[in-house]
Amino acid sequence: MMRILLSLVFSVFLSIYLTACGFHVRNTSNLPPQLKTIYLDNSNERSNLTGQLEQNLQELGVHVVSLPNQAPVTLAIISDAFSQTSGALGTAQQLNTVTINYNVTFVLRDKNQKNIIAPISINSNTSYVQSASDIFGDTTAIPSLEQGLTRDMIEKILAYLDATKTRTALAAPSLSLSSPSP
């Protein structure tokens, strides 16, 4: 039992270390040419996702514009939200594990606001362990863990943008990427 507990604690600390190390996207893949100019739309003004995603897209050579009519494609973040769950760990219930979940739903739209791909929902999560006697919890770890989850989510979004299915949808002849409708 103690060995399992130590293994779990080690795993949690390793994940905290890796997410807090300042990892940045270093993906050199080429996004589809239709995504070289893009508009980011996120209705959640308190989200850190859009700013970090914009920075990563710019590092990949994408021109992120400030108005939707300036881009052939809009990447719309429909929702992004963190949530937490917790539960007792072990038979003595002396430890409490807290799981932070991050859910994001996004869609690619053309200039006519027609979906290029169906809305995609992705999830990422991480956990940490705290003493069950700490009734207020260790809130100092949460911002760093959320930052790591945000970086993970950006990686996943970029992978979807670079996926074969997305490339095929962007190349469809019926797609309106050249001019907006009147």
**Spatial extent as radius of gyration:** 20 Å
The count of DSSP E runs of length 2 or more, i.e. the number of strands, is 5
Q: Helix proportion of residues, in percent?
A: 25-40%
Let me know the average pLDDT. 81
Strand order of the largest sheet: 2-1-3-4-5
Q: What is the helix tally?
A: 4
What does this protein structure show overall?
With about 180 residues, this protein is of the alpha/beta class. It has one domain: 2-Layer Sandwich (Double Stranded RNA Binding Domain). Helix content is about 30%, strand content about 30%. It has 4 helices and 5 strands; from the N terminus they run αβαββββαα. The protein has a 5-stranded mixed sheet. α1 (about 1-20) crosses α3 (about 140-160) and α2 crosses α3 (about 140-160). About 20% of the residues are buried.
List its traits.
182 residues; alpha/beta; five-stranded mixed β-sheet
Give a short summary of the structure.
With 182 residues, the chain is an alpha/beta fold. Helices cover 32% and strands 30% of the residues.
